[in-house]
Amino acid sequence: MLLEQLSEEPTDDVVGELLMLERNGLARRNQPLAAYTTMRVGGAADWWAEPNTEEELQTVLRAVREAGVPLQILGAGSNLIVGDDGFHGLALKLGSGFAWHRVEGHRIVAGGAMMLPKLTHIANQNLLGNFEWACGIPGTVGGSIWGNAGARGFNGETFESRDAAADLESVVAYDRDGNRQFLWRDEIQFSYRRSSLGERIVTEATFALRPLTPEQAKAHKEATTQLLKRRRETQPVNASSSGCIWQNPNIESGPLAGCRGAGELIEKLGLKGHSSGHAAISEIHANFIVNMGGATSEDVLALMSSVEEIAWREAGVRLEREARLVS
Ligand SMILES: Cc1cc2nc3c(=O)[nH]c(=O)nc-3n(C[C@H](O)[C@H](O)[C@H](O)COP(=O)(O)OP(=O)(O)OC[C@H]3O[C@@H](n4cnc5c(N)ncnc54)[C@H](O)[C@@H]3O)c2cc1C
User: C or N: which end of the chain has fewer Cβ atoms within 10 Å?
Assistant: First the structure.
């Protein structure tokens, strides 16, 4: 179905629906996508929409459905690699109208385009804790719930792993037909960097956080500072990248049994600095591929395939990709 759609020239009707969006200022053509991702590679989307309200989102979704063209959702593009041929369909990013928040007692309700680090700051300012894990993740609320992002956080006493699902209470999402849905957290399945949200678009989320005294909030703020410092020391935070490229494998046997993560495995395979064109395995953290300037998507993908092939050949480990390809 998708392949047929991609290979067919759009009919007048198909273009008509999208032209109508364009005329109403809700979509435009030929939008380069590289600047909308943190890896900064790849081509253009045939069509681009950045709705700012739920009504605009609904209008765009219904037009895309009528037009029958593929749809790609982007958050902050911090876990996406866009192919050099771009995207032959409509790429949709929730606009700044979805970057809102509201504090309700010990709950924070946030729009799907709200950035996680900002939300960590807002939580602390409002004497709410448990959201420290998100302080250094350059993603949106919507993208991070969809992919169940996670990292080391702070529980008031110690640092521990936490993820987007941990304090989530409910979500508002739209299906591809433009229908609004309210979902309790228990209606969504979450696992390591995965959710069952599928094709839904998250426009709003409610997190129930931990109330803090001013003294505790100070300790949580200090913990955030330490988490950010550790990130700066251990990750290429100032380079163009898509974060961790591979999921952490469970290595129980073979020559590299006991490696704690994909980064350690790749480092032990001697692949730090390994490159393809202008893309390289980071010298700081081997689970990151960095765009050294002027990289193409082909450079990044060739490097990914090369690392996967070496991990399989040398260590018998199949690396699973965490970053997603848009093509
Ligand atoms: C320097 C750096 C550090 C990082 N550190 C971490 C880390 O510690 N832990 C971690 O888990 N990740 C990390 N990442 C990866 C990335 O930031 C997270 O995966 C983040 O949650 C992705 O959110 P996003 O808004 O950028 O989504 P995108 O990358 O834009 O999209 C990711 C997926 O989510 C979907 N999506 C986006 N928005 C929505 C929406 N509103 N509704 C439904 N689906 C949507 C997209 O279609 C896509 O499939 C890091 C990345 C970088 C560059």
Answer: N
Cα gap 256→35, rounded to integer Å: 38
Question: So what's the architecture of 5-93 in CATH?
Answer: 2-Layer Sandwich (3.30)
Pick from 124, 127, 128: nearest CA to 225: 124
The burial class, CB within 10 Å (0-12 / 13-18 / 19+), for 292 is: middle
251-309 confidence digits (pLDDT tens): 777 777 778 789 999 999 999 999 999 999 999 999 999 999 999 999 999 999 999 99
Closest CA to 80 of 2, 138, 150: 138
Cα(118) to ligand 1 centroid in Å equals 15
Determine the CATH number of domain 99-233.
Answer: 3.30.465.10
* 312 close to 271: Cβ distance less than 8 angstroms: no
The rounded distance, in Å, linking the Cα atoms of 119 and 133 is 11
Q: How far apart are CA 82 and CA 223, in angstroms?
A: 35
Q: Of the residues 98, 114, 115, 137, which should be mutated to test ligand 1's pocket, given the most ligand atoms within 8 Å of the CB?
A: 137
C-alpha triplet 32, 38, 42: angle, nearest 5°: 35
User: For the chain, how big is the Rg over CA atoms in Å?
Assistant: 21
Ligand 1 pocket, residue 241 CB under 6 Å: yes
The DSSP result for 13-24, as a single string, is HHHHHHHHHHHT
| Residue 65 · residue 308 · CB < 8 Å | no
**Residue range 240-326 in CATH 1.20.910.10:** no
CB 88 within 8 A of CB 102: no
Whole-model pTM: value is 0.94
Burial class (CB in 10 A: 0-12, 13-18, 19+), 285: buried
The residue ranges of every structural domain in the chain are 5-93, 99-233, 240-326
